[in-house]
Write a structure and sequence with these properties.
The complex is a heterodimer.
Chain A (H helix, E strand, L loop, with lengths): L2 H17 L2 H10 L3 H9 L18 H13 L6 H13 L9 E3 L5 E3 L2 E3 L5 E2 L6 E6 L2 E6 L4 E3 L9 E5 L1 E9 L6 H31 L1 E2 L2 E2 L4 H31 L9 H26 L10 H13 L4 H15 L4 H6 L4
Parallel strand pairs in A: 1-5
Antiparallel strand pairs in A: 2-3, 3-9, 4-8, 5-6, 6-9, 7-8, 10-11
Helix pairs in contact in A: 1-4, 4-6, 6-7, 6-8, 6-9, 7-8, 8-9, 8-10
Chain B lengths: L3 H4 L9 H17 L5 H5 L7 H9 L18 H14 L4 H17 L2 H12 L5 E4 L15 E4 L3 E12 L6 E7 L11 E7 L6 E6 L8 E12 L3 E2 L5 H13 L3 H4 L2 H10 L6 H29 L5 H26 L11 H12 L10 H11 L4
Parallel strand pairs in B: 1-4
Antiparallel strand pairs in B: 2-3, 3-7, 4-5, 5-8, 6-7
Helix pairs in contact in B: 2-5, 6-7, 6-8, 10-12, 10-13, 11-12, 12-14
């Protein structure tokens, strides 16, 4: 584990555990935009872990960014930090620096028409709050101004903003990028895998804590073998989601996401496929262990489980990513699949 | 709040270049060596016993890779061994003859064996010429291993053993057995009364294996009777009364390898061939989910190999991977049956895919029995989580 990653893991956990207890999450859900939290995050430069040093960034690796993005899941962070980290990285790939302000990312189906950006119905993370949008169209990074957009406010199950924007948006800048047009969709899936890993870790920790505290039939729930086996099952699943997510981040560092040949796409698809699949059982077991209290708004398990249900399908779920991998496997056939799995790429 | 989730993490590990170079060599070797084996033989994988093949693998220097050079081992890394094992499993190589020796017996003897045991036996393990059996379970001691009753009593010249072991793979043809016996009958010493022994099955008298046929007709395992078996003093491995601790270490080796998710990989390969040209997204997605599982389990498994290489004892992590790997490989035969809409058949009937399917559907129940059940694994995980 790199030193930067260790430092970031410590500081991000400290920041969010200070800032985001259940009452703060409740307040943010009622008030909308968590301006103070966003200020803390950007003051500490968390959003710039992948930005160039020239732009005040850390020039970190994706593996360094992993603990930040995982923590965004773990603490149910209600600001677009993962998306902003990605936006900085996209800019850095063309040796550009991201402009000031809150970005949102768009991933597909958008088009340039008469020098304007025309959006689809895609729910954009905090699109209504965003000062500008960033995405990739026809080999160019496109940055568009949100000021002329008509905002249709939408939320996902986590009650995080997923607004749709309509209208013709002014282009603020374009620059050529080595990245493919589908990169935002793929890396969006990668971000959500890490967030699912984090939210799953929180659900596990809450379930273990609760099972230890709650007594029935004269002993704590965690002394019942049935409960122990549920928790062990849950722990294994949570560990597996974390393991494949961090593997995908490490592979992205070593093999990239563009070009022919063996890049990180295989692991990214696997990470989102597994993470999305695991959500069903992780949420089911963690709620079951909590009993009725976990079904209340007052007890905060829902801050992570509602996000798990939302993130399961954002940027593609089990069907999409499973089909992607299944197609590769069936086309490869029985003799080629193992060499693909074991290929170390670059 | 202390976080269980943070204690159970699998740091990504990467196999070193020399291990990847070894992989290529192993692949070329297996391609040549296995071309005359039928796909049905190959689907038996680590249950298929073939002394000749094991000797060839030994001659290549690929057995007992991690054992010290001074005893005839290679002194190579856990990663090198990992690569040889996974390539053999995926290719469906018949590895049963050397399997136990290579996986656990050699390491156990290196740690706890006498100089004589190490000097005489480890070179035979690395040559692929010593087959080992595991004497743990007894008719009345399965998951509750420490309740075992077969006793070894001290005599003037050594030990006298009486009792019965069961589910002992290859006991009828193995050269050696490493067995756990009760050396102290004191009921207060359930764990502390156990010791490990090395038994030369070709020399010692009074041991009678009886083959137990499994439900699929396979004849690998045995019930083994010990009647007044005389063992020499030096048959004791390690320290008297330390058998439980030693066997726990041995079980960690037994539970941590890639065979805990790759038993059915040969079937998955054949399934992909059967689905050649398939375009149905629902079917592709089911296949893809299995591939995603395989990639996940492989990376967790390599992470454990890295922990072994670093000299750590990954008991908890290994239990997690065994539990998850078992769920994965046990579900595969059913999926392979559903997606192909072909009847599974007995050997000798139907096409080769149907026969492989028929075999693996029948032996799949054993995946969650051998090497410790999911119930035992979850107990270990719960203990590691501090709730038991």
């Amino acid at each position: 584990m790199s030193e930067l990653r260790n430092i970031l893991e410590d500081s991000v956990n400290r920041l969010f555990s200070d800032q985001l207890d259940w009452s703060a999450l409740e307040k943010h859900e009622k008030n909308g935009w968590a301006a103070d939290l966003w200020a803390h995050v950007t003051e500490q430069g968390m959003d710039k872990v992948l930005a160039r040093e020239e732009a005040g960034g850390m020039s970190g690796s994706w593996s360094d960014a992993y603990p930040i993005i995982r923590a965004c899941g773990r603490y149910a962070v209600p600001v677009p930090l993962p998306e902003t980290i990605l936006a900085h990285w996209i800019a850095a790939q063309s040796n550009q620096d991201l402009r000031e302000g809150v970005p949102s990312i768009f991933s597909k189906g958008c088009a340039l028409k008469n020098g304007k950006l025309v959006l689809t119905k895609e729910g954009l993370p905090w699109g209504g709050r965003a000062d500008f949008l960033i995405g990739i169209i026809n080999g160019d990074v496109v940055i568009a101004d949100t000021k002329n957009a008509v905002v249709n406010p939408q939320k996902n199950l986590g009650r995080d903003d997923r607004d749709t924007l309509t209208g013709e948006l002014d282009i603020l800048a374009t620059h050529p990028t080595p990245l493919d047009d589908d990169t935002v969709h793929w890396l969006g899936a990668l971000l959500r895998s890490a967030q699912i890993a984090g939210a799953s870790a929180a659900a596990l920790d809450l379930a273990v804590q609760y099972a230890g505290d709650r007594e029935q039939f004269g002993r704590s729930l965690s002394k019942f073998q049935a409960i122990q086996h549920h928790l062990a099952d849950l722990a294994g699943l949570v560990a597996s989601v974390d393991a494949i997510a961090i593997t995908a981040f490490a592979r992205l560092d070593s093999a990239g996401i563009s070009g022919n040949g063996r890049n990180a796409r295989f692991e990214i698809a696997a990470a989102k496929c597994r993470a999305s699949e695991a959500v069903e059982k992780i949420t089911r077991i963690s709620h079951q262990i909590h009993g009725a209290i976990g079904f209340t708004y007052e007890y905060g398990l829902h801050f992570v489980t509602r996000r798990l249900w939302a993130w399961r399908s954002e940027y593609g779920g089990v069907s999409e990513w499973g089909e992607n991998l299944g197609r590769i496997a069936v086309e490869a056939g029985g003799d080629k699949i193992w060499p693909i799995i074991t290929n170390k790429g670059q | 709040m202390s976080s269980i989730a943070d204690q159970l993490r699998f740091e990504p590990a990467s196999l070193p270049p020399e291990s990847e170079a070894l992989r290529e060599e192993v692949r070329v070797f297996l391609n040549t060596e296995l071309q005359d084996y039928s796909v049905i033989q190959r689907s038996h994988s680590w249950e298929a016993y073939d002394a000749e093949f094991s000797a060839k693998l030994g001659a290549k220097g690929w057995l007992g890779l991690t054992l010290p050079k001074e005893y005839g081992g290679q002194g190579r890394s856990a990663f090198d061994r990992y690569v040889v094992v996974e390539e053999c499993l995926v290719a469906g190589a018949p590895t049963a003859f050397h399997w136990v020796a290579d996986r656990q017996s050699g390491t156990l003897l290196t740690r706890y064996g006498s100089e004589t045991q190490k000097k005489t036996i480890i070179p035979r393990i690395t040559a692929g010429k010593a087959c080992f059996a595991i004497g743990m379970s007894e008719p009345n001691s399965g998951s509750d291993l420490a309740s075992l009753k077969t006793k070894a009593e001290r005599t003037n010249s050594g030990w006298l053993v009486n009792g019965t072991k069961i589910w002992t793979s290859n006991a009828h043809r193995a050269d050696y057995m490493i067995a756990l016996f009760r050396t102290d009958p004191d009921p207060n010493k359930k764990h502390a009364g156990l010791s490990q022994f090395l038994i030369d099955l070709k020399q010692v008298k009074g041991i009678t294996p009886r083959t137990i046929e499994n439900l699929a007709g396979g004849k690998n395992f045995n019930e083994v009777a010990f009647v007044d078996v005389e063992l020499p003093e030096e048959a004791l491995i390690g320290v008297e009364g330390e058998g439980w601790r030693q066997v726990t270490e041995e079980l960690a080796l037994e539970r941590s390898g890639p065979e805990r998710y790759l038993s059915c990989f040969f079937l998955l390969r054949k399934l992909l061939d059967e689905l050649n040209g398939e375009e149905n997204p629902a079917i592709l997605s089911k296949i893809g989910l299995q591939i995603a599982w395989a990639i996940t389990l492989r990376n967790m498994s390599i992470s454990i190999a890295a922990q072994l290489q670093a000299g750590e004892n990954p008991t908890l992590a290994a239990s997690v991977v065994k539990d998850l790997g078992c769920q994965f490989e046990q579900a595969l035969p059913g999926l392979a049956q559903e997606l192909c809409q072909l009847q599974p058949t007995l050997e000798g009937y139907g096409n080769s895919y149907q026969q492989i399917l028929g075999n693996l559907i029948q032996i799949a129940p054993s995946f969650s029995l051998r090497g410790g059940t999911p119930e035992i694994m979850r107990g270990i995980i719960a203990k590691g989580m501090g709730i038991r």
